[in-house]
Design goal:
This protein has about 350 residues and is of the alpha/beta class. It has 14 helices and 12 strands. The strands form 2 sheets. Strands 2-1-3-4-5-6 form a 6-stranded parallel beta sheet, with helices on both faces. Strands 9-8-7-10-11-12 form a 6-stranded parallel beta sheet, sandwiched between helices.
């Protein structure tokens, strides 16, 4: 269906760009699989200065001028958009409206922002990263069609590199996560994350590396740039994480797909629904447990019962699994095809390597 015209409104700030959607949109245009695509980075424009309401009105004008038949928006929490703005967008053109919210929100302590609620009400379909409270937040706000879509990794940001065949790693385990200890509001399960890392420090000592804000003691390395976390992950046999929102069904943070795509064995929190998401074959490279202490014991057991050759093979299998199921460019096509097949998935996959290009408009 080559008549597709897509306007993309990404979640961006500063120098950060959503490469995982910008580049495949350019690929789809070049391959003739869609007619045209444009980008309007509303959050970036607002944070860069000027009158916020003027920026919001400019978005409405862009819809009227570009005349997309698909509008894809992501994470609008700080944009100030309201029901009034979405009503004006609808009046400006006819399009399928897809809203993608990849940030986690609880019901009370860390509630869904009002612009996200308004977007969910206006959207034809809303995608979110959990199937429990995350989805119910949107349904309570008035969303008509709420669907689960996992966190994924950006092949452009974390470029493919084969798993090293060297039989040693700098560390046994690496953790990439911030230490959060809010006094009043914040993400749930932060105490469990601190407990998990503390046990790892006691058990592993200098065999552990911890990247992120707030950590001290054994293994603490300080913060790491988001785009370089795959390098840290590759420095160890196992990447480990304790999720916030441990009770959210089908949820995992982007640490899981990034770790697997980097060729790492990954250890994380168990969530309801994992049995359907991860078949028995993934046990070679993915472990999960219901308690911080239990997960540390799983990691220790894995390291004691496997050889470097076993881990190298498992890392390669992890990488293949991630590239088959967790690519962000493939997720874009699934979003576009939420109602009907607008873009052939196989043809899209063939287009992903059509040169080094990306959409640069903001």
């Amino acid at each position: 269906m080559t008549g597709v015209r897509i306007l993309y409104v990404p979640n961006e700030a500063g120098d950060f760009r959503q490469l995982g959607f910008r580049r495949p949109l350019a690929n789809l245009v070049r391959a003739g699989l869609i007619s045209d695509a444009d980008v309007f980075s509303l959050q970036w424009r607002i944070r860069n200065g000027g009158d916020a309401e003027e920026h919001r009105q400019d978005l409405i004008k862009r819809i009227q001028g570009f005349r997309p038949n698909v509008v894809l928006m992501q994470h609008l929490g700080t944009t100030g958009l309201t029901d009034k703005h979405f009503k004006a967008m609808r009046a400006a053109g006819e399009f399928d409206f897809i809203y993608h919210e990849a940030d986690p929100y609880s019901r009370f302590l860390h509630p869904l922002p009002k612009p996200a609620q308004a977007a969910g009400r206006a959207a034809d379909v809303t995608f979110t990263v959990g199937s429990g409270v995350f989805a119910e937040n949107f349904r309570r706000a008035g969303s008509r069609d709420v669907r689960w879509a996992s966190h994924v990794f950006e092949p452009d940001r974390y470029q493919f590199s084969p798993v090293s065949v060297e039989p040693v790693r700098e560390h046994d385990v690496v953790v990439v996560a911030n230490r959060n200890s809010p006094r009043f509001r914040g993400h749930p399960n932060w105490r469990d994350r601190i407990k998990f890392v503390s046990i790892l420090q006691d058990r592993l000592g200098d065999r552990l590396a911890i990247y992120g804000r707030g950590w001290t003691g054994a293994g603490a390395q300080g913060p790491i740039d988001f785009s370089k976390q795959n390098e840290a992950i590759r420095s160890a046999w196992v990447s480990a994480n304790w999720d916030h929102y441990a009770k959210e069904p089908h949820y995992f943070s982007n640490r899981l797909p990034i770790s697997l795509a980097s060729g790492s064995i990954h250890a994380t929190t168990y969530h309801r629904g994992y049995d359907s998401l991860f078949p028995d074959s993934t046990r070679a490279f993915l472990m999960h447990n219901r308690s911080p202490r239990g997960l540390v014991e799983d990691i220790e057991q894995y390291l004691s019962q496997t050889s470097p050759a076993d881990r190298i093979d498992a890392g390669s299998r992890a990488q293949r699994f991630a590239y088959k199921g967790f690519r962000q460019d493939d997720q874009l096509v699934r979003f576009l095809n939420f109602r009907e097949v607008k873009v052939d998935p196989n043809a899209a996959s063939d287009s992903w390597d059509l040169g080094d290009l990306s959409m640069t408009a903001v």
